[in-house]
Write a structure and sequence with these properties.
The protein has about 300 residues and is α/β, with parallel strands linked by helices. The protein folds into three domains: about 70 residues, Arc Repressor Mutant, subunit A, CATH 1.10.10; about 100 residues, D-Maltodextrin-Binding Protein, domain 2 (3-Layer(aba) Sandwich); about 100 residues, Periplasmic binding protein-like II (D-Maltodextrin-Binding Protein, domain 2). It is built from eleven helices and ten strands. The strands form three sheets. It has a six-stranded mixed sheet with strand order 4-3-5-10-6-9, with helices on both faces. A two-stranded antiparallel ribbon has the order 1-2. Helix 1 packs across helix 2, helix 1 crosses helix 3 and helix 1 packs across helix 4.
């Protein structure tokens, strides 16, 4: 197979988006014959056809749909790059696109991102929340600047990236006032048999919690498991059970949910990472976050 000519690929992409050579010609200011010839050269280079003719219309075949999905990513990212450069040169906000693992505490996310808002450049933060695998795919195609996570890049990941530890802190345990008064005395062993709200399987804290319980010979009564940390805290606020959260955001948790702290431990920690495709961080917002994170997380 010959090397792909991206000019030909662009013509193909426009034709597929417009739904026909005629309309693509109007957009590209080229004759239909020219576009048809360019697509023919692309098909020859790829050694396959990309369209099936249905009556007078062209429809993408299976290979064409696959090629279009790649072309769409390539040229959409190209348009985003051009738009970002135009915006920066025109004094418009610098866009900072962050992937946030959905198991990460939202108050921690705000704490970590806050230093970026103090940059001299005007910044526009775009947060995309999701599962780690999905976010890493976005990072790989440069759709994200970084991914914030509660653990490092998995060793079995297909994405080539680098984990930057932003900070770590201890873990505190919270409950509605009545439960907190009942289980505060003799902490942590008071948690034995206590109703407990466990984070979901994707949360990095979950296996650490379970190991800590085993080490301390504590057997809490698990009354709920939650992928959504905010929903977990809502149940905690309602008095359903005790839950754990980073000490770095203890004050915010107590204020927001009206709960009280039962106790805390440094033997159990929460860690916060920025995952990037760069070994050395270069985006000004990421540098600001990385520089401030260790001090901010440890001091709260």
């Amino acid at each position: 197979m010959s090397t792909i000519n991206y000019k030909h690929l662009h013509y193909f992409w426009v034709v597929a988006k417009c739904g026909g050579i005629g309309r693509a010609g109007e957009q590209l200011h080229l004759t239909p014959q020219t576009i048809s010839g360019q697509i023919g050269m692309l098909e020859e280079a790829l050694a396959t056809t990309l369209f099936d003719r249905v009556g007078r219309r062209l429809e993408l075949n299976d290979t064409g749909r696959m090629v279009f999905s790649y072309a769409d990513e390539i040229f959409t990212l190209g348009e985003e790059l051009e738009d970002m450069l135009r915006n920066r040169s025109g004094g418009r906000p610098l866009q900072f696109t962050v992937g946030v693992v959905d198991s990460l505490q939202k108050s921690i996310v705000r704490l970590l991102l806050e230093p970026a808002l103090n940059l001299p450049e005007t910044l526009r933060i775009v947060c995309r929340e999701g599962k780690l695998d999905t976010l890493l795919a976005g990072l790989a195609i440069r759709g994200l600047d970084i991914v914030l996570a509660d653990g490092p890049l998995p060793s079995n990941s297909n994405v080539r990236g680098f984990s930057h530890l932003l900070g770590e802190c201890g873990v505190a345990f919270f409950a509605a006032p009545a439960l907190a008064r009942r289980y505060r005395k003799a902490f942590p062993h008071s948690l034995d048999g206590a109703p407990f709200l466990l984070p979901g399987e994707d949360a990095a804290l979950r296996p650490r919690l379970l190991r800590w319980f085993d080490k301390e010979r504590i057997r809490p009564r698990i009354v709920g498991e939650f992928d959504d940390g905010a929903l977990l805290k809502e149940f905690g606020e309602a008095g359903v059970g005790i839950f754990a959260a980073p000490t770095a955001v203890a004050a915010q948790v107590k204020k927001q949910y009206g709960v009280q702290e039962i106790g805390r431990t440094d033997a159990l920690t929460e860690q916060f990472y920025a995952i990037s495709v760069e070994r050395r961080l270069s985006h000004p917002a990421v540098l600001a976050i990385s520089t401030a994170a260790q001090k901010r997380v440890a001091s709260i």
